[in-house]
Amino acid sequence: MRELGPIEIFSRWFAEEERDNQEHCMVLTTCCNDRPLSRTVLLKEFHENIFTFYTNLHSRKSQDILCNNTVHLLFVWKDKQISILGKAEQVSDKRADEYFYSRSQEKQISAIVSKQSNSLSSYKDFINEIESFKGSIIRPEHWSGYDVIAYQMEFLERKCHRRNYRILFKNIEGDKWASTELYP
Ligand SMILES: Cc1cc2nc3c(=O)[nH]c(=O)nc-3n(C[C@H](O)[C@H](O)[C@H](O)COP(=O)(O)O)c2cc1C
After folding, report:
1. Is 162 designated active site?
2. What positions does the entry give for FMN binding (predicted)?
């Protein structure tokens, strides 16, 4: 696998996974002031070493990213694991618009109404707010996305008798990566 490079390995594994899964979940870990927190988000786009998700900029994860934009992404696909370290950078308003307006009206209203990560007195209130929503459907300024620009990517493939294969790539510069195989 060493000769393939991390982008090629990710693309190949992603293509295999895509056959049986429409949505691509990843676990995003942020860490501000030594308080790490993980949650699932959807991978919406990837290009080269850039992985994109969309979210609310007032959420806990976005506040963490403001404080420390180094984030971790974890993919677990059957017998494969991909671990990524990268820097999160907010996408342009144009890209946020493109994705927001491509979604169903129901999802747009939920995104407008949700004060993500804030406390809610009752779930019923959230549903009432959605059902009584009469405003215009405009992407809120605090709804956007992040590109995670990977600088380290590790791949693990489970093999029989725990003879797992593990390889770590570190970005040197541009599209140059240094690789090291690791004991599993
Ligand atoms: C399968 C799945 C996919 C999710 N996708 C997203 C997503 O793409 N964006 C998002 O903001 N939250 C998503 N969530 C909700 C997050 O896991 C999380 O609860 C929410 O973003 C608030 O996180 P925070 O308070 O740490 O910011 C998803 C949850 C699940 C279970």
Report:
1. yes
2. 39-44, 54-55, 60-61, 81, 116-117, 166
